[in-house]
Amino acid sequence: MSRQVKIEIWVGLLVLMTLIAVAFIALKVSNFSAIQDRPSYQIHALFSHVGGLTQRAPVKVSGVVIGRVASIEIDPISYRAKVTMDIYNDYADLPQDSSASILTAGLLGSQYVGIEVGGEEDVLKPGDRINYTQSALVLENLIGQLMVKLTDGGDK
Amino acid sequence: MIFLRYLGSSSLEVLQALGKLAFFVFSVFPALPYSVWRFRLLLKQIYFTGVLSLPIILTAGLFVGMVLGLQGHNILTSFNAEEAVGTMTALSLIRELGPVVAALLFAGRAGSALTAEVGLMKSTEQLSALEMMAVDPMKFVVAPRLLACIITLPMLAMIFIAMGIFGGYLVAVGWLGLDEGAFWAHMNDQVDWHEDVINGLIKAIAFAVLIAIISLYQGYESVPTSEGVSRATTRTVVHASLGVLGLDFILTALMFT
């Protein structure tokens, strides 16, 4: 085997290893497969507090991901947080009286939007708004309420 | 008076070196396209800089990943968040350790070899001989090596990252008994292709340009004696390593804020 052929084989091996590494990182480590833009439609909801919700956070029904958070901004009229969500077209029949709440995965996990499916016949169309929402739990508020309750109990 | 003279002469030296470096950079980049067509030269340099750095990258990646898995598990257990070991290992490798450690090893392994090679070419007057034959050493010697570095370091960084995650997996799942599904699922959830992997790749490319320019410049401008070449090699490793760490901070500040 000439030297040139040897060099070519080794470089080929290097390229092959790189390809395997990139494929491993793309498929197994990162969310590359989730990024391919699946056909989706947008709905939005107003929350009085979004907590630590971020863009691209999952939207789940019964724990199954049905979409992603597209954007979070302030609604100029009500000054509440307007969360716009991309819902995949496969899940096009969410009832209109569904409710959205901001939940936390695990104790220290990341936050996501959980949708509780309602029972109405009419379904949410692109651009519609979910009217029933529950905001993220804010620990300080919770402790505040707890303190009020505890002190009330002490008075009695 | 002596102090003023020293200050003046050293500033002039720094300015002169910067000017030479700028000249070097401006003359090597136009020569870069030619090296694509000299495919055999390029292949040989990829072999020298890439394939020969492979063993050190593979072992270092494996051990860095194993240490990350072990330390991550130790620390995260106290928060009851062992599942995040995979995320921690993957994110720290992809964002920082992969490109940076691969670049440091690359500077030590390939950068120093480039400086020594080009420096010896200069001291044995091979570069002058090339010029005599109307072959531009920039196109024939420097450009293929620069391009080879730019191609190989991102590849090595990717292999390093994959090896590291595999090492973390071995320790966390194989040894410490973490649940395999939680390890991969958490990682999959938190690592973003654009935000993390592509940015890590951009870092690796930037480091490759930096290391290649420094090592080739040091070789090209080295004092053509055996002492001069050895000093140039040392300078390459020191400057390239410091440059990588400094540039890493700047890139991190730009990318992840």
Structural notes for this entry:
- The complex is a heterodimer of chains A (156) and B (257).
- Chain A has two domains: 30 residues; 107 residues.
- Chain A has an eight-stranded mixed sheet, with no helix packed on it.
- Chain A has three helices and eight strands, in the order H-H-E-E-E-E-E-E-E-E-H.
- Chain A has 156 residues and is α/β, with parallel strands linked by helices.
- Chain B has 257 residues and is mainly alpha-helical.
- Chain B has one domain.
- In chain B, 86% of the residues lie in helices and 0% in strands.
- The model of chain B has no long low-confidence stretch (mean pLDDT 90).
- The interface between A and B is medium-sized, with 27 and 33 residues.
Task: Summarize, please.
In chain A, 21% of the residues are buried.
Summarize this structure as a short list of keywords or feature phrases.
heterodimer, A: 156 residues, alpha/beta, 2 domains, 8-stranded mixed β-sheet, 31% helix, elongated, B: 257 residues, mainly alpha
* Run of helices and strands of chain B: HHHHHHHHHH
**Count of individual domains of chain B:** 1
Biggest pleated sheet of chain B: none
Interface with most residues: A-B, 27 and 33 residues
Q: Distance between the terminal alpha carbons of chain A, to the nearest Å?
A: 95 Å
Helix-strand blueprint:
The complex is a heterodimer of chains A (156) and B (257).
Chain A: H1 3-29, H2 32-35, E1 40-47, E2 58-61, E3 64-74, E4 81-88, E5 99-104, E6 111-116, E7 129-130, E8 132-134, H3 139-155
Chain B: H1 2-28, H2 32-37, H3 39-49, H4 54-77, H5 85-123, H6 126-132, H7 137-175, H8 180-190, H9 193-220, H10 226-255
Helix pairs in contact in B: 3-7, 4-5, 4-7, 5-7, 5-8, 5-9, 5-10, 7-9, 9-10
